[in-house]
Write a structure and sequence with these properties.
The protein has a single domain, classed as 2,3-Dihydroxybiphenyl 1,2-Dioxygenase, domain 1. A hairpin with a 7-residue loop joins strand 6 and strand 7. The chain has a four-stranded mixed sheet, with helices on one face. Strands 5-8-7-6 form a four-stranded mixed sheet, with helices on one face. The longest helix has 11 residues. Helices cover about 20% and strands about 35% of the residues. It has about 120 residues and is an alpha/beta fold. The chain has three helices and eight strands; from the N terminus they run E-H-E-H-E-E-E-H-E-E-E. The two termini are about 25 Å apart.
Length: about 120
């Protein structure tokens, strides 16, 4: 995913504090370029900086989460948008945006079609 230059602390607040990712060290040569690498379970998420950053409004990552309701509460409490979606039968999901405006899909682990 893309992010603006110099906003790593903001990314950590969103992806680590709200979504529960853990930051992992980037190799030193890559760390000098900025951005952060994150992990949660088997998911690796790399945020790279773009000089001419434009948030992704259509393309997105989809994350399956175990604490679906609690995540809605955490996002709502911090004024991030929640757009529930029922287009996929049997899948409870919503769309939100990260701290930079990138679209993110959140899927409930308890949905029958995700197990």
């Amino acid at each position: 995913m893309a992010m603006p230059i110099g906003k790593e602390d903001q990314a950590r607040q969103f992806f680590c504090d709200i979504l529960g990712f853990v930051e992992v060290a980037k190799p030193p040569m890559m760390a000098a370029r900025g951005g952060i690498w994150l992990v949660s379970g088997s998911v690796n998420l790399h945020l790279g900086v773009e000089k001419e950053f434009i948030p992704a409004k259509k393309a997105h990552v989809a994350l399956i989460v175990e604490d679906y309701i609690n995540l809605i509460d955490r996002l709502t409490h911090r004024n991030f948008p929640i757009k529930h979606d029922a287009e996929l039968a049997g899948v409870r999901r919503f769309f939100t945006e990260d701290c930079f405006g990138n679209r993110i899909e959140i899927i409930d682990f308890q949905s029958p079609n995700t197990q």
